[in-house]
Amino acid sequence: MSSVPRFWRNLGSRYNLEGTHCKECGEFFYPPRNICVNCRRTGELESFKFKGTGEIISYTLIHTAAEGFEGQAPYTLAIIKLDEGPRLTSQVVGDPDKIQIGTRVRSVFRKLGEDGDRGMIYYGTKFVPVDA
Amino acid sequence: MRDVAIIGVKNTKFGELWERSLRDIVVEAGIGAIEDAGVSGKDIDALYIGNMSGGRFVEQEHIGALIADYSGLSRNLHVPATRVEAACASGGLSLRQAIMTVASGYSDIVVAAGAEKMTDVGSEEASSALAAAADREWEGMAGATFPGLYAMIAKLHMHRYGTTSEQLAEVAVKNHKNGCLNPIAQYKNEISVDDVLKSIMVADPLHIFDCSPITDGASALVLAPAEIAHKYTDTPIYIEATAQASDTIALHDRRDITTLDATVMAAKRAYSMAKLTPEDIDLVEVHDCFTIAEICAIEDLGFAEKGKGGIVTANGETAIGGRIPVNTSGGLKACGHPVGATGIKQAVEIVTQLRGDAGKRQVAGAEYGMTHNVGGSGATAVVHIFSRER
Ligand SMILES: [Zn+2]
């Protein structure tokens, strides 16, 4: 599904929803950024841990899986807006029929995928409906 | 800056060309275009080639040099050759680089080509290579696929504007109808709305017939300064505008995922450069990698009110003979989508139409045409406007 170094160097963000916050304009970033898109080099970014609650902006049920996700199909992929503002792409676990645009969700720690050959299993953040 | 004209064009056949290599098809397109222009190798000052993923599809990088070599432009002529990469917008940007090189005065006769050989790998490997045009670390690692990203655009478009699966299907139906009239098209079969809706679901709400195929193909154009274009051809086609814009690589970071702001901005720059409005454009080739992409494109380019792209399509306004014919070539959907070639093929179609050479798919009296080529889910957009008269 991906290279091990690329996965591990973002471990803090993947496991703990760590992003960044611009002290200058106040915008939050997840995934983390080193340069604020508004203030650019005049902004000062600090590390920030998100609460992990938000709502679904849009979603799809993926039938033809991405490489490394074959065993999970069909799975729900969504764009989620965290309450602090930033949006991210993540899987939503649970009954696809209970998922809609606007559904409130919270983050959970789950298996993300695996490399077929080496058997490397990746863990990280997924989301579940708050009511589930 | 100098005005620029297109003096030669050529597409190869688009499809599953298993018996042919990347270099074979580019040479066919390149030679075809320079014969069409009536120039010879020694006249060529520079070559650009749009290619997205030679390293993945045929395990060949250094495509610029490869193509120059096999076109006979290297050993004795040493023509500068540059590969241009911007995912599925590689071809459009190859054209844009060529235009800027001629306009600047650095070069006179320049070839802009585009090519992709996608069927030398299996469809899984091809999908994986295409997924690299999105944000691998923050979309791909979550399980996103390209159809999945466009499916999320479609889902919100349907939720917000009432667009239906039937309206999406109408895009595919129209483009297959047009493809039947195009000798180079990958698919020359008509399909119905029902066929689309009954085809396999790839990523809800997109069925397999909502998606463009895996295709081999190459296309080429020859450019010259406008003031000498008549030396080569009776029907030079002029560049009225070239414009490009970027947006966030990840779909989730966009202002509004149902609008490709890169398209809106590139179109705005192009209309301004050409001093034209959407009403002046007679036909357009848009980037319909998925049916929803054509709906968004006609809205973002100003041919339909925001949210009305589906209705406009279902009404037949984008058909040949309609108010604004869209994708007379069959589009990416039916003509095929060899990713690096697409932006050049779009320009070849517009030139063919403006010359009046499009046969059964001819848009009568076409004066102004536009192309719209997108990379990824909208991180790059490039728009060109062409005219028959100066
Ligand atoms: Zn800032």
Mind explaining what this structure looks like?
- The complex is a heterodimer of chains A (132) and B (390).
- Chain A is mostly beta strands and 132 residues long.
- Chain A folds into 2 domains: 1-49, no CATH class; 51-132, OB fold (Dihydrolipoamide Acetyltransferase, E2P) (Beta Barrel), CATH 2.40.50.
- Helices cover 8% and strands 42% of the residues of chain A.
- Chain B has 390 residues and is of the alpha/beta class.
- In chain B, the strands form 2 sheets. A 9-stranded mixed β-sheet of chain B has the order 3-2-4-7-1-8-11-10-9, with helices on both faces.
- Classes of the chains: A mainly beta (132), B alpha/beta (390).
- Chains A and B meet through β4, β5 and β6 of A and α5, α6 and β5 of B.
- Zinc ion is lined by residues 22, 24-25, 27, 36, 38-39, 43 of chain A.
- Chain B: One of its GO terms (molecular function) is acyltransferase activity, transferring groups other than amino-acyl groups.
- Chain B: InterPro entries: Thiolase (IPR002155), Thiolase-like (IPR016039), Thiolase_C_2 (IPR055140), Thiolase_N (IPR020616).
- Chain B: Residues 4-226 form the Thiolase N-terminal domain.
- Chain B: Keywords: Isoprene biosynthesis.
The gist of it:
Chain A is mainly beta and 132 residues long.
- Described by the principal axes of the CA atoms, the overall outline of chain B is globular
Might you state the CATH topology name of the largest domain in chain A? OB fold (Dihydrolipoamide Acetyltransferase, E2P)
Number of strands of chain B: 11
Relevant CATH superfamily of the largest domain in chain B:
Thiolase/Chalcone synthase
Q: Radius of gyration of chain B from the CA trace?
A: 19 Å
Which terms would index this structure?
heterodimer, A: OB fold (Dihydrolipoamide Acetyltransferase, E2P), 2 domains, three-stranded antiparallel sheet, B: alpha/beta, Peroxisomal Thiolase, Chain A, domain 1, two-stranded antiparallel ribbon, 13 helices, 17% strand, binds zinc ion, Thiolase-like (chain B), Beta-ketoacyl synthase/thiolase (chain B), acyltransferase activity, transferring groups other than amino-acyl groups (chain B), Thiolase_N (chain B), Thiolase_C_2 (chain B)
